[in-house]
Design a protein that fits this description.
α1 (16-31) packs across α2, α1 crosses α4 and α4 (76-99) packs across α5. Among the domains are: 8-82, Orthogonal Bundle (Arc Repressor Mutant, subunit A); 136-183. By secondary structure, the chain is mainly alpha-helical. β1 (64-66) and β2 (72-74) form a beta hairpin. It is elongated and about 80 Å long. It contains 8 helices and 2 strands. The longest helix has 24 residues, at 76-99.
């Protein structure tokens, strides 16, 4: 393959722009057989000389294999980073759309901003919270406490069913009280 030069700036953190390039190259690599400068420029909405300059930097850091006027590839390290940034983007986008109900275009844009600031650990907590909401229905006012138990003990279907029954029984009792004119929330008796 092509030469990969390595710069001594390896220990400097990647900038959000570098991460955006790696994510774009990662996604283009899944879509196309070869990734070219013009593909990246089009995807990121930048001019080709800007892409060329960034590719030089990414190559020096050992994240891509690239020679001028040729196609390029992510190195193993570059692939790992691109894949992780892409994962963050998708998890955050799903959280914003599925949990918060934000429209896709806005969520996609916001996820792009957030993906650079969220650690892998925090992202894993987002994933766990989404799994909780999807597998263990909300069970009353203390459902966030139930999430903490879910986090500690994992997906326990029996526990979820137990919580649902407790909530259901309490809900049925509350409905009966309301029908009988004994609304406990407002402190008044309806007759």
């Amino acid at each position: 393959m092509k030469n990969v030069s390595v710069n001594h700036d390896l220990h400097k953190p990647l900038t959000p722009t570098m991460e955006d390039y790696l994510e774009a190259i990662f996604n283009l690599g899944k879509e196309k057989r070869v990734v070219r400068v013009k593909d990246i420029a089009k995807k990121l909405g930048v001019k080709m000389p800007t892409v060329t300059n960034m590719l030089k930097t990414l190559s020096e850091r050992g994240l891509i294999a690239y020679e001028k006027y040729e196609y390029l590839e992510l190195t193993e390290k570059g692939t790992d980073i691109g894949e992780e940034i892409n994962r963050r983007h998708h998890v955050l986008c799903r959280f914003l759309t599925d949990i918060l109900g934000i429209d896709f275009d806005t969520a996609d844009e916001e996820a792009c901003k957030m993906e650079h600031a969220v650690s892998a650990g925090t992202l894993d907590e987002f994933v766990l919270f989404m799994e909780f909401i999807q597998s263990c229905p909300r069970t009353g006012e203390n459902w966030l406490k139930r999430f903490e138990e879910f986090r500690v003990h994992g997906k326990d279907r029996e526990k979820c069913l137990e919580y649902m029954k407790t909530f259901s029984n309490g809900f049925e009792g509350r409905m009966k009280d309301m029908q009988d004119g004994k609304d406990k929330n407002d402190g008044s008796q309806h007759g």
